[in-house]
Amino acid sequence: MTPINQGLLKGSLHAIILKLLSDSEWMYGYEITQKVKELTSGGLRITEGALYPALYKLEAEGILTTRTQVVDGRARKYYAIAPDQQGNAAERLSQIEQFLYHLQGILTPNALIKLPTS
């Protein structure tokens, strides 16, 4: 399998983070990297060097909230979508889904399926 271009992955990180956090209430960074690896059968691998700046940016924008918990004597930072940002996160994911639908229409026009409406 050809490795995924890191520029494509970097441009998709916010969507990946928001989708994972919308499906599971709280996650920490390493857990996010492992979940992506699991869901893609190793096809996508997110480095911590790419992940944490995206998490910090979403946190600075107020979309994510955090809590710290001590695990095995070490502080672990957990991330979740802020309660007042659930709608915003859903809208961002919807926009990305629409973009991917249209991109798929360009890449393989005969394979289009109807885009779900929300």
From TrEMBL:
Xref: Pfam families: PadR (PF03551)
Coiled coil region boundaries: none
Transcription regulator PadR N-terminal domain boundaries: 17-83
Family matches, as InterPro entries: Metal_resp_DNA-bind_regulator, Tscrpt_reg_PadR_N, WH-like_DNA-bd_sf, WH_DNA-bd_sf
PANTHER family from the UniProt entry: PADR-FAMILY TRANSCRIPTIONAL REGULATOR (PTHR33169), TRANSCRIPTIONAL REGULATOR RV3488 (PTHR33169:SF14)
Name listed for the protein in its UniProt record: PadR family transcriptional regulator
Organism the protein comes from: Rhodocytophaga aerolata
